[in-house]
Write a structure and sequence with these properties.
The complex is a heterotrimer of chains A (759), B (352) and C (165). Chain A is of the alpha+beta class and 759 residues long. Helices cover 24% and strands 24% of the residues of chain A. The radius of gyration of chain A is 27 Å and the shape is globular. Chain C folds into two domains: 3-79, Ubiquitin-like (UB roll), CATH 3.10.20; 88-164, Orthogonal Bundle (DNA polymerase, domain 1). Chain C contains five helices and five strands, in the order E-E-H-E-E-E-H-H-H-H. Chain C starts with a strand and ends with a helix. Classes of the chains: A alpha+beta (759), B alpha+beta (352), C alpha+beta (165). Chains in contact: A-B, A-C, B-C.
C-alpha cells in the first residue's frame, strides 16, 4: 500500500481552462509562414566570417598532415584552425566529471575516433572559399582498421544504461517462469543505426566582445549549454549570452553541447571576428549523436490462458570507444505487460563510431519495436487476438516495481482506438484480407508508452500596472509549440487573456526552463510558469485582502479567485477589483512573482508515472514486388491534461511518422571496412515523404492525473513512435505471414522472405 | 568546389569550341552537375552554360510521324505536353516518377540522359572508384552493394544508371542527335551509354565538346501508346531512385502481340534493352505464361555482383507485372502515384 | 573575377556584383541579399527546404547557379504575402497546423504555390501528397500540409472564378 499521498491541487484561486485546453493556433505561426522566424544561421553580424569544418575520412587513427598552406592560398581564406593553433580551453573536452557530460572533439589532439570527426576548421570571407579551403586540406592519416558493426568487438555489461540507470533489472524468476510456461517465444530482432536529421543543420554564430560571448545557436537546453560553454572557456555564465528562439528540430541532437559548436566559438576567438559555422548535411552524421544499432532477444512464456509467466528482454548495442551512452531499449519491458517475472539486461561493445545520444524516444523506440512484435508472436502462438492478448496481460500496477500507476487510461485508448480503426472483425490468421485491387491487407496493433518525466525549472512572472502581464523562462521551441503552450499556461496562471500576456523565452538570460527533452518540457517549465504566476497573484491578493480600501479586504489570500484581470472573493464574486486598480492604489508599476518546479519525489516513489496509448496500423502489401504502404494509422493516447489539443495532435502525428520511418525506411548504411556512412545525406537516408503517409489520426483520450505534477501534464513528444513501429510490423505480418526480424523492413524481406510465408 | 571559368556561349559552335578544351563541362540546369561539384566528384576548370543556346527547347512533331525533343526541354514540360504524354505514355510516366517536382521543373532532357550513377562509393571521394580514379579499384565489389548491378557489370565497376526517363526511351529506339567538333551525328540512345568493361571512366560515346541537341523518337514508337507502362520499385513511395524498374510497351492486335518493347532500369550500368524477352513475345498471345517466359529471358544473363541476387528475382517480377499492366491498357489519366505498384488504374488511353 | 548579374527578386530589380562564380541562387539570396527566409537543409537538392519560384516555377535554389540565372524573376517566401495580408497558402498552413519547427515551411509554402499553379492535382489528396513529396518534413507535419494545400487550392480557385465572373 502506498503511503497517504494527497493529490496535488492547483492553487485554489486559479481557474484552469480559459486558455489551457484551447486549440489555439501557434503564436509563432505568422513568423514561420512568412520566413521571418530567425534561426541561428539566419544571423549575420557585421564583420562576420564563415567557418567550415573539415572532417575525417577514416574512423580510427591519427591525422598526420593537413595541407594548411594550400587552404590558406585559396582566395578568401583568412585562417585555418588546427590542433596547432586553436585557442586554449579552460577545460579538457575529454574530461567527464558526471555522466551527463559528453566527450567531444575540439581539436585537442590529432586522434581520430570516428568517420566524420571534425579535424580542422577553415575560416574565410565567403562560404564558398571556406568550403573549398576545407577540401584543399587533403588530410593524410595513419589509419588503423576500423571496428564497425554490432559484433566487431567484445561486449561487456555496462555500468549504467541511459547514463545512470541500472543495466540489469530483475523481478521474479524468469527461467522458472519460462520453464513452467505452456507456450514460449524466443525471438531476436535487429534495429539499425539512425540519425536525428533535424531539417535545420546544427549551426552557431559566435561573436566575442572582450571576454563576453554572444551566441546564436539552436539548443534544447539554454542554461545547461550556457554553463558548459562558460566552464570550457573559463567564463562566468553571465558572460555567455545565447539566443535560441527557434530550433529547426532537435529530437535530442541539440540538447547537449557538441564539438562543432565549440569549434565555432574557438574559430571566432582565433580570428577576432564573429564567425558563422553551419554543419553540412553529411557532417550531421557523426559529431552530433545518433541512435545506435541494437540486437534484442525477447523470451516470453505464457500459461494455458495466455497470461505471461515470464518476460526476458536482452539488448546488445554499441557505444563509442571514448564515451558511454547505452541505448536502454530493454527497459521497454518494465512498465507495460503484467508478468510476474521480468528480466531486462543490456550488453554493449565499443566501436569506431561517434558516441550515440538521446534520439527521440531513446531506448523506448527500439525497445518498443521489439517488444510489440514479440507480444504479437506470443498472441499468435496462443491463437489469441493481439488486442485481447494485451488486455489479458494488462498491468494494473507497474510490473517491474509493483507500484500503482498515477493514472492509466490505456483501456480507453485500446477501446476508442479499436473502435475508430474498425478492429473488430479482424481475422486472426494472416494473409486473409485483400482489397479490391488485389493487395494483401494487414491490421496490426502496438501499445505505446512513455515515462512522464519531470526536470527542474524556474520562471518569473510580472503583473504590470497597465493590466498586462509578462512571464519569462528560457524555454526552447523546437516545433512542439512551446511559444504557444507556455503562453497559454502563463495567461492562466495570471488570470489574464492570452493577448494581454507577453511570454519571453529562448534566451539564456532568462530563468532556467530546464531542457526540452524527455517529453518533459511542458510539464517542467509549465509547472514553474504556473508557480511564478501563482506567486505574483498571491502577492497581489495579499496586498488587496489586507487593504481596508479594497473590496477584497478580509477575504484572505486563499479565498480569492483570479480571472480576466480581476481578483474576486470566492465567497462573494460581486466583490472584486482589477489588478490595475490594486497596483495603482499601492503606487506600484508592477509586481513580480517567481516560481520553481521539481519532481515530487515522494509522489514518484509512490506511483509509477507513464503516458499510454494504442496504435493501430493498416498496411497494404504487394508481396510479389515487396512494396508495403501504411494506408491507415490511428493512435489513441492518454497523456493527462492537454494544454493545446492542436499542438498535441501534431506531436502525435510527428511521432507516428517517426514510427513509419523506423519500421519501413530509415537506416544508416555503414561501410564495414572504412566505418564511413555511405548515405550521409537526405537522398539515400530515407525519411518518409508526404506520399508515405496517406492517413493519420490521433485521438486524445481524456485522463486526469492528480499526482504527476501540479498541472497534471504528461509528455507527448515521443510516445507516438512507441507502439507505431510494432503496429506496422505486426500489420505486415497480418497481411503476409512474414515476421519482421530486422528494421527497416526491406523490399526483399517481403518479396523473398526466408521460408516464413504460408502457402 | 573549386573556382571555375564560366562561359555562356551564344551559339552551338561557340559552345562546342569552349567545351572541347580539357577540363570543361556543359552546364544545363545543373541538378546533377552542381550536386557532383559540391560533392567534390566533379572538379571542372570551366563550366560552359548552354541554357541560353537558341532552338534547343522545342518539342516538334516530325513529318515522318516521329517526334524531336530539344535537349533543353525541361523534364516537367515534356511530361506535361499533352501530345507527347498521349503518344508516349510510358515515357511521361517514367519522367513523372523520377526525382521531385522541383527537380523535374529545372532538369533538362539532355541532362537526364547524362546523369551519373548514385553508387555510394562513387559519391564518397575517399573510396576507391575506377570511374573517378581509373585503376584505383572498386570499393563496391566487396562493400555495401545491395542496390548495385546484376547485368552488364564488370570486375572494374558494378554501378547502375539511375535514370527513369532513359528506360522507356531505350525500349522505343530513341535516337540522340549530337553536334560536335566534326559536325552533326546521331547514335541510338542504346549506344550512348557504355558498359564499364575495363574502362568504367568512359561512360558515354560522347567525344570532348559533343553537345546533345535533341532526342528523337521514331514514328514506330507511337504504335504502343495504347499499351505502355513504366513501373518502378523504390524504398519509399516517392522521391527515391529505382531499386529495379521496367518499361513495357505492347503493340497488340486481336489478342496477339505484334511486337513488344521491354527495357529495365536500376539493374545495369546503362538502361537495359531486353530484346531476347521481346522476341519471346513477338506473335504470341498476351498472357501470363508468355510474360513469364519473357521475364525469364530478360534476366537470363543476370548475375549478382554482390549481395544483390534478390534484384534478379525482383527484376523478373517487375517485367512480368509491367507487361501485365501494359496489356491491361494505358490508363486514361496518369495515376496519382506514377509508376507505383500501388496505382493500378485500369482504363483506356492516357491523357496528361 | 567579377560578374554583373541582374535579377528581379520579389518584384524588385536587384543588380548584383558576384565575385565568385560558385555562388548558388540559395546563397545569393541568403548571404548576399540577406533574404534568409529561404532555408538550406541539405544544399544538394534532396530536401526542398530551399524551394523558390524562378520564372514562375518551383525549383531547388541550392542547385541553381546564380550566374546562370541572370535575368530571372525570383519569388521567395518574403515576397508572398500581400503587405499586411497573408497569402491564402500561408493562412491555410496556420489554420491546419501545417508546420512545427517551421524550418521546412518556407520551402513547403513556395512548393505549394508552385503546385497549385501547375494545376495538375484537382482535389485529389493523393496527387497533392505526391506533388509535395519533394519537400521533406522531419517533424512530420504532412497531414496539416496536405490539408492546407487542398484548402488553399480550393479558395484560390474560388477567388479566380469570382474574379473571372
Amino acid at each position: 500500500m502506498p503511503p497517504e499521498i494527497n493529490p496535488i491541487h492547483a492553487s485554489p484561486h486559479i481557474r484552469h481552462g480559459s486558455n489551457v485546453g484551447q486549440p489555439l493556433t501557434r503564436r509563432d505561426g505568422v513568423l514561420k509562414v512568412t520566413g521571418a522566424a530567425p534561426y541561428a544561421a539566419d544571423n549575420h553580424p557585421a564583420g562576420m566570417l564563415y567557418a567550415v569544418l573539415a572532417v575525417s575520412s577514416i574512423a580510427r587513427g591519427r591525422v598526420t598532415f593537413l595541407d594548411v598552406d594550400a587552404a590558406k592560398a585559396h582566395a578568401g581564406v583568412v585562417d585555418v584552425m588546427t590542433t596547432a593553433n586553436r585557442p586554449p580551453l579552460a577545460e579538457d573536452p575529454d574530461a567527464k566529471t558526471n555522466p551527463f557530460m559528453f566527450r567531444f572533439e575540439a581539436l585537442q589532439n590529432d586522434l581520430v575516433r570516428y568517420a566524420n570527426q571534425p579535424i580542422a576548421v577553415v575560416i574565410a570571407e565567403t562560404l564558398e572559399a571556406a568550403t573549398e579551403g576545407a577540401a584543399l586540406l587533403a588530410p593524410r592519416y595513419d589509419a588503423e582498421p576500423a571496428r564497425t558493426g554490432l559484433d566487431s568487438t567484445e561486449s561487456f555489461v555496462p555500468a549504467a544504461v541511459r547514463l545512470i540507470s541500472p543495466p540489469e533489472v530483475r523481478v521474479g524468476d524468469v527461467e522458472a517462469g519460462l520453464a513452467a510456461a505452456s507456450t514460449r517465444i524466443d525471438a531476436t530482432y535487429e534495429t539499425p543505426a539512425q540519425y536525428h536529421n533535424a531539417m535545420e543543420p546544427h549551426a552557431i554564430v559566435a561573436a566575442w566582445e572582450g571576454d563576453t560571448l554572444s551566441i546564436d545557436m539552436p539548443t534544447q537546453g539554454l542554461a545547461l549549454t550556457q554553463a558548459r560553454i562558460a566552464g570550457l572557456f573559463g567564463l562566468s555564465p553571465k558572460s555567455v549570452q545565447i539566443r535560441s528562439p527557434f530550433l529547426g528540430g532537435g529530437f535530442g541532437s541539440k540538447g547537449l553541447l557538441s564539438g562543432p559548436t565549440v569549434l565555432g566559438i574557438l574559430a571566432a576567438r582565433l580570428v577576432g571576428r564573429p564567425v558563422k559555422l553551419v554543419l553540412r548535411r553529411d557532417q550531421m552524421y557523426g559529431p552530433v549523436g545518433h541512435r545506435p544499432p541494437t540486437r534484442q532477444r525477447l523470451r516470453l512464456g505464457m500459461d494455458a490462458e495466455g497470461r505471461l509467466t515470464a518476460l526476458s528482454h536482452h539488448l546488445k548495442t554499441v557505444t563509442s570507444t571514448f564515451d558511454d551512452f547505452v541505448e536502454p531499449a530493454a527497459e521497454a519491458s518494465h512498465a507495460l505487460y503484467a508478468s510476474p517475472a521480468i528480466a531486462t539486461t543490456h550488453e554493449v561493445s565499443r566501436i569506431d563510431m561517434g558516441t550515440p545520444l538521446f534520439m527521440r524516444a531513446p531506448g523506448e523506440a527500439p525497445g518498443s519495436a521489439a517488444l510489440e512484435i514479440a507480444i504479437d508472436e506470443a498472441a499468435w502462438a496462443c491463437r489469441m487476438d493481439p488486442l485481447d492478448f494485451r488486455l489479458k496481460n494488462y498491468a494494473e500496477v507497474e510490473p517491474i516495481s509493483g507500484k500503482p500507476f498515477s493514472s492509466k487510461a490505456l483501456r480507453e485508448c485500446y477501446a476508442e482506438g479499436a473502435a475508430r480503426f474498425g478492429w473488430s472483425g479482424r481475422p486472426l490468421a494472416p494473409a486473409q484480407m485483400r482489397d479490391d485491387a488485389g493487395f494483401l491487407v494487414g491490421w496490426g496493433i502496438g501499445t505505446a508508452t512513455f515515462p512522464a518525466i519531470m526536470f527542474q525549472a524556474e520562471a518569473r512572472a510580472v503583473l504590470r500596472g497597465d493590466g498586462t502581464g509578462l512571464v519569462e523562462t528560457s524555454a526552447a521551441d523546437m516545433g512542439q509549440g512551446a511559444w504557444t503552450a507556455f503562453a497559454q499556461l502563463a495567461a492562466d496562471s495570471l488570470g489574464l487573456a492570452i493577448d494581454q500576456v507577453e511570454f519571453r523565452a529562448g534566451t539564456s538570460d532568462l530563468p532556467d526552463a530546464g531542457i526540452a527533452g524527455g517529453s518533459a518540457h511542458t510539464a517542467t517549465a509549465g509547472a514553474a510558469i504556473h508557480a511564478a504566476g501563482s506567486d505574483a497573484i498571491a502577492r497581489l491578493a495579499e496586498m488587496a485582502t489586507s487593504d481596508e480600501r479594497s473590496p477584497l479586504f478580509g477575504g484572505g489570500n486563499a479565498g480569492v479567485l483570479a480571472r480576466d484581470g480581476r481578483l474576486f472573493r470566492r465567497d462573494d464574486e460581486s466583490r472584486s477589483e482589477s489588478y490595475v486598480d490594486i497596483l495603482a492604489r499601492a503606487g506600484l508599476a508592477e509586481i513580480e512573482g517567481r516560481g520553481k518546479s521539481a519532481p515530487d519525489q515522494v509522489a514518484r516513489e509512490a506511483y509509477a508515472m507513464h503516458a499510454h496509448g494504442a496504435v493501430f496500423a493498416e498496411v497494404k502489401v504487394d508481396t510479389d514486388l515487396g512494396q508495403a504502404r501504411v494506408t491507415r494509422l490511428v493512435g489513441a493516447f492518454a497523456a493527462g491534461r492537454i494544454v493545446n489539443p492542436r499542438l498535441v495532435r501534431s506531436q502525435y502525428y510527428g511521432g507516428m511518422i517517426w514510427g513509419v520511418s523506423f519500421a519501413l525506411h530509415e537506416h544508416a548504411i555503414v561501410d564495414r571496412r572504412s566505418g564511413r556512412i555511405l548515405n550521409a545525406d537526405l537522398a539515400e537516408y530515407h525519411i518518409p515523404v508526404n506520399a508515405d503517409v496517406p492517413s493519420l489520426e490521433a485521438l486524445l483520450i481524456e485522463e486526469h492525473d492528480p499526482y504527476v505534477n501540479a498541472l497534471g501534464i504528461k509528455g507527448v513528444g515521443e510516445i507516438g513512435i512507441t507502439g507505431t513501429v510494432g503496429a506496422i510490423a505486426n500489420a505486415v505480418w497480418h497481411a503476409t505471414g512474414i515476421r519482421a526480424r530486422r528494421f527497416p523492413i526491406r523490399i526483399e524481406d517481403i518479396a523473398i522472405p526466408p521460408g516464413d510465408r504460408p502457402t | 568546389m573549386k573556382v571555375f571559368d564560366y562561359a555562356r556561349p551564344r551559339t552551338i559552335a561557340e559552345a562546342i569550341a569552349a567545351a572541347a578544351e580539357p577540363g570543361s563541362v556543359y552546364l544545363a540546369a545543373g541538378t546533377n552537375l552542381l550536386d557532383l561539384m559540391k560533392g567534390g566528384i566533379a572538379r571542372p576548370d570551366r563550366v560552359v552554360d548552354v541554357t541560353r543556346l537558341p532552338g534547343l527547347d522545342r518539342i516538334e512533331r516530325l513529318p515522318d510521324g516521329g517526334i524531336r525533343i530539344g535537349a533543353l526541354v525541361r523534364n516537367a514540360d515534356l511530361a506535361q505536353d499533352p501530345d507527347f504524354a498521349r503518344t508516349y505514355p510510358a515515357v511521361a510516366e517514367a519522367l513523372l516518377s523520377g526525382a521531385s517536382a522541383q527537380l523535374r521543373n529545372a532538369a533538362t532532357v539532355g541532362g537526364n540522359l547524362l546523369q551519373r550513377t548514385r553508387c555510394g562509393y562513387f559519391h564518397d571521394v575517399a573510396s576507391a572508384c575506377n570511374k573517378r580514379n581509373p585503376g584505383s579499384g572498386c570499393a563496391a565489389r566487396d562493400g555495401e552493394n545491395r542496390l548495385h548491378a546484376v547485368l552488364g557489370w564488370s570486375e572494374a565497376c558494378i554501378a547502375t544508371h539511375p535514370s527513369d526517363f532513359c528506360v522507356p526511351l531505350v525500349a522505343l529506339d530513341a535516337v540522340v542527335e549530337i553536334e560536335g567538333r566534326s559536325g552533326r551525328r546521331e547514335i541510338a540512345l542504346e549506344d550512348l551509354h557504355r558498359l564499364p568493361g575495363h574502362t568504367p571512366e568512359l561512360e558515354s560515346a560522347l567525344e570532348p565538346g559533343d553537345l546533345i541537341v535533341a532526342i528523337r523518337l521514331p514514328a514506330e514508337a507511337a504504335a504502343f501508346s495504347a499499351h505502355a507502362r513504366y513501373l518502378k520499385l523504390r524504398e519509399r513511395t516517392s522521391y527515391a531512385f529505382a531499386v529495379v524498374s521496367a518499361a513495357a510497351a505492347l503493340d497488340i492486335e486481336g489478342g496477339r502481340i505484334r511486337q513488344a518493347r521491354i527495357a529495365l532500369g536500376g539493374v545495369a550500368p546503362k538502361p537495359w534493352r531486353a530484346r531476347a524477352a521481346e522476341d519471346v513475345l513477338t506473335g504470341s498471345a498476351a498472357d501470363e505464361s508468355g510474360f513469364r517466359r519473357a521475364a525469364a529471358a530478360a534476366l537470363a544473363d543476370a548475375r549478382p555482383s554482390g549481395d544483390n541476387a534478390f534484384k534478379i528475382e525482383l527484376a523478373k517480377r517487375i517485367v512480368l507485372r509491367a507487361l501485365a499492366l501494359a496489356a491491361a491498357g494505358t490508363p486514361e489519366q496518369l495515376p496519382a502515384l506514377p509508376a507505383s505498384s500501388f496505382s493500378s488504374v485500369p482504363g483506356a488511353h492516357h491523357a496528361a | 573575377m567579377s560578374f554583373s548579374i541582374s535579377l528581379t527578386v520579389n518584384g524588385e530589380r536587384r543588380n548584383v556584383e558576384l565575385q565568385d562564380p560558385r555562388t548558388t541562387l540559395l546563397d545569393l539570396l541568403r548571404e548576399h541579399l540577406r533574404l534568409t527566409g529561404t532555408k538550406k537543409g541539405c544544399d544538394r537538392g534532396q530536401c526542398g527546404a530551399c524551394t523558390v519560384l524562378v520564372d514562375g516555377r518551383r525549383i531547388n535554389s541550392c542547385l541553381a547557379l546564380a550566374l546562370s540565372h541572370d535575368g530571372a524573376d525570383v519569388l521567395t517566401i518574403e515576397g508572398v504575402a500581400d503587405s499586411a495580408d497573408l497569402h491564402p497558402v500561408q493562412a491555410a498552413f496556420i489554420a491546419h497546423d501545417g508546420f512545427q519547427c517551421g524550418f521546412c515551411t518556407p520551402g513547403q509554402i513556395m512548393s505549394a504555390i508552385g503546385l497549385i499553379q501547375e494545376g495538375q492535382t484537382g482535389d485529389d489528396p493523393e496527387r497533392v501528397r505526391e506533388g509535395m513529396s519533394g519537400n521533406l518534413c522531419r517533424c512530420g507535419a504532412y497531414r496539416g500540409i496536405t490539408e492546407a494545400v487542398l484548402d488553399a487550392r480550393k479558395s484560390l480557385a474560388q477567388a479566380e472564378r469570382r474574379d473571372a465572373a
